[in-house]
């Protein structure tokens, strides 16, 4: 990534005139000569991708951050639970820092079984049970809301398309008005069936389709 040039520019309106200080920005540092050497050379690099987990575990206060950065894209977080637990229990980081890392892992990491990951973490690091369960519940609720929304959208779209098609067929056979009426009714029924298949609650289906609760109940059988 290439960065644009940044030109330092100071607008001065102090009481002393003219501007009485140095125009060399490095002089703003306590140690200007060391600052000049620092910013003229290549920046320091910590490439965690080539560090072994064993070496990372020796880095104490920054080890937790380095380990997470190294493994956050791995296929399954369960593979590095032992190293993660070791650092969480080592006491190198504050509670706030550990909670931030756990939130980051659960929100951005990958696992084939989130429930198993959370329970393994709790079993080996019970101190963090409250935080882990809180985050897991938030993720579960978010997933549930997204599933309901997707189910409603898919059900409505499917019902609309099938209702339109059925309305056309009935319209050709029995007349345009009757076809539209039956098409709309069948569309509502198909929408209700689709929402039921996605596990949407009866209250939401009643609101979305206008069908009675008894009518929707008959669609379950």
TrEMBL record:
BP GO annotations: DNA recombination
Stated family: Belongs to the Rpn/YhgA-like nuclease family.
Protein name: Transposase (putative) YhgA-like domain-containing protein
Region (Disordered): 159-189
Gene Ontology terms for molecular function: double-stranded DNA endonuclease activity
Transposase (putative) YhgA-like domain: residues covered: 2-98
InterPro entries for the chain: Rpn/YhgA-like_nuclease, RpnA, Transposase_31
Domain of life of the source: Bacteria
